[in-house]
Amino acid sequence: MTASAPDPRAADPRATDPRATGRGPADPGRTESGPADPRAADPRAARTRARLRAALWEECAERPLDEVGVAALVRRAGVGRATFYLHYPDLQALAVDACADVVRDAVEALHAWRGTPDPAAPPPALAAFFAEVEPRAPLYRGLLRPGGGGPLGELLHRELRAYSRRERELAGGPEPALVASAVAAAFGGLLADWVHGLIDVSPEQLADRTWRLLISLHRTPLPHTP
Prior knowledge:
Blueprint: H1 18-21, E1 30-31, E2 34-36, H2 43-60, H3 70-77, H4 81-87, H5 91-99, H6 101-111, H7 124-133, H8 137-143, H9 150-171, H10 176-195, H11 203-219
Antiparallel strand pairs: 1-2
Helix pairs in contact: 2-3, 2-5, 6-7, 7-11, 9-10, 10-11
């Protein structure tokens, strides 16, 4: 691919669906450190984790994450304290697990287009993604610091950067590592600042601006690294 005749894939701000690789957060049976956790295949464990995640969402609808306690959480979930610690080392680990779908959803939203991407026409799924994030902002704010830091921000950056880089390498685009880092940082930073109220726009407006920015990052002429 050359700068004068870009491959459409090189202009793709999307990332590969983590479910297709089995390595993303949508694969509950795999841990960051290696092989699958055998408990993930146990339907009873899956149900318990689902109850804990649901209880956390309910708690965070009433108070910030840093004010949620394990005692109140397990009482709401109807499980014992020991059961909680069997599945999660702490509340932050549960919160990251509960929020991990946002990474998959972000990847899918940026992936939801056909043909040559039009900067003026963001995928409808992108606005839908931001609209779904908005009511859950209280929990995301506890894990996603302004600028894109925090445990969820780090996960989001790592996954988006890896997928964006792989797509750009496949397309033969220049500077895949540089562009992938820029795409991941821009998306994560915009999302984080928005949930913290630092960007005052609607989900539809944010989708439009984010899409234009990511397209421009992919289309900025860059020399091939010698």
